[in-house]
Amino acid sequence: MGARERVPRSPLVSHRCCCKHTASGVRAPLWVDPSRTRADSQQTRCSDRASVKQRVGPQHLPESLTARFPPTSTMTAIQDSDMHTFGAELPAMFDGVKLAAVATFLYIIVRCLNLKSTTAPPEVMYQDTPLGLYLLKSCPLLTKEYIPPLLWGKSGHIQTVLYGKMGRVKTPSPCGVRKFLPMQDGATATFDLFEALEDHSTGDDITMVICPGIGNHSEKSYIRTFVDYSQRRGYRCAVLNHLGALPTVELTSPRMFTYGCTWEFGAMVAYIKQAFPHTKLLVVGFSLGGNIVCKFLGENRSNQDRVLCCVSVCQGYSALRAQETFLQWDQCRRFYNFMMANNMKKIILSHRSSLLSMNSSNIGDAELSKLYTATSLTQIDDSIMRKFHGYSSLKEYYEKESCVHYMHKISVPLLLLNSSDDPLIHQSLLAIPRVLAEKMPNVIFALTQHGGHLGFFEGAVLFPQPLTWMDKVIVEYTDAICHWEKKPPVCQKSSQQSSE
Question: Which EC numbers does the record give (predicted)?
Fold first, then answer.
């Protein structure tokens, strides 16, 4: 017999019988196709488990099988128990998250509103002179505790924003007459004149000459509130409208108001002196206006003639030092700088046609192009404002326009008011009035703990009063000065007795 040819066996294909006979006569496979899926094997095991349960029953299963195949009721009980335990923990977990969220929110509110801060009287720096002692005795607001509204009044940001956006509640509308003053360079200055509604307590004719803040005028809410209150206390009020600030008054020369230009304010004072030869003057400046009035009085000794006193509120004293702090994010100062720059851009662009159409203008398309991209007051001052007066550099502009170089020449009584939480005025700038009050006997520097920038609202809990602490302390101080000038010998004698 010849050799049989061996055919190679494939590992996946068998030509032999792959079954064997069992004792029960059932043919069981000797080889399982590897292509059989895991799902099939799982289905087989489940069917086997069900058949075992049918034949034996759960109570007759061996312990090993019972542990391996727990009854359906047991599994359901375990699952229900776990879900019950997890469900009981959910409300407690959510309560903890809510409590943490509330605690975080309250912490932020307390920090932002500065609710932990305590109220206190203003910090007053003055020299021990008869006039200084008399003024502190006659102005109790300078020594009494200033109490802002409880919920939000301790936040300098809210005080500042409330002043800037909402103004005053129940703002009065004093009636005045607008005056137009032609200037030597062709500009037209304007101011509003408001007559006194009552006689002054001294019986004298007294006029307050007022310079508002940056880009402001007599129609601003805080100015109207202060003017109405001053009128009722016997003061005539003259309020300067910054050149270009009024949207209804066109420019007649290629320039606008600047940080320290005193030309328009000087023209208003000269008009008042001429129109009312017997009147006495009280000079008041707010923010940028405070820089202008102090610079005006210190520029020339003759500017102090017939001036009884000067009050400056919330000014920065040195533009050169302030512009560096204005670029910092501390106290959100950079954000305020951006907002004020946008306001200045709107004012300048509203007079674009007037600035470009005049032959003598230093402002051209190139400067206006830089204005569109400006995001800070420094950029606007460099590209536009300094060129109105021909300054060669920004440093020269800030140096020449700041009142810090002129204040030591003021001889009339001078009250400087600032707030510690003013977000616009850096703490380093407050060293200027401190040193001035230490060296000059006519200067009083009052620093409140709260008040923001030109805020100084008062109130019980939520709603502020229409009249602010700032309004009242200015009139209280000017009243005291008027009485001091009316009877100086009596005042000096009483001051000396009180000091003893």
Answer: 3.1.1.23, 3.1.1.6, 3.1.1.79
